[in-house]
Amino acid sequence: MTFGVVNEAAAEVRRQFNDTGVVGVPRTTGNRGLHVYVRPLPERDGYQVRAAAVAVARELERRRPEERGMRVFVDLNQSAPHKTVVGA
């Protein structure tokens, strides 16, 4: 898989966020991945944030079904409550 395929998936996630008014900021991770950071509403807990990430992943799958060999792995474990990144 090329980084271009990952970049295309990230662009689709950005379109999903734009459709709902959410701002996502992509960051490269490792040598072939991207993380998309989103600021959740303060009243949302980690479990609600993870549920939203699952919904985004499912919508990505619906919008861009991938052929075998060209799959993009959406790591939902990065959205687990204990993985939450807190800004200064």
Task: Kindly describe this structure.
The protein is of the alpha+beta class and 88 residues long. The chain has one domain: 2-Layer Sandwich (Alpha-Beta Plaits). The chain has two helices and two strands. A two-stranded antiparallel sheet has the order 1-2. α1 packs across α2 (46-63). The termini are far apart.
Structural class: alpha+beta
Under the CATH scheme, the architecture is 2-Layer Sandwich
Q: State mean pLDDT (0 to 100 scale).
A: 79
Tally of helical runs: 2
Please write the CATH class name: Alpha Beta
Order of helices and strands: HEEH
Quaternary assembly:
single chain
CATH fold assignment: Alpha-Beta Plaits
Helix content: 40-55%
Radius of gyration: 13 Å
Low-confidence runs:
none
Count of individual domains: 1
Strand content: 5-15%
User: What is the number of E strands?
Assistant: 2
C-alpha termini separation: 35 Å
Query: Which of globular, elongated, flat, extended, rod-shaped describes the shape?
Result: globular
Strand order of the largest sheet: 1-2
Largest sheet, strands/sense/barrel? 2 strands, antiparallel
Question: What are its keywords?
Answer:
single chain; 88 residues; Alpha-Beta Plaits; two-stranded antiparallel sheet; globular
Quick overview of this protein structure:
By secondary structure, the chain is an alpha+beta fold.
Give me the secondary-structure topology.
Layout: H1 3-20, E1 24-29, E2 33-38, H2 46-63
Antiparallel strand pairs: 1-2
Helix pairs in contact: 1-2
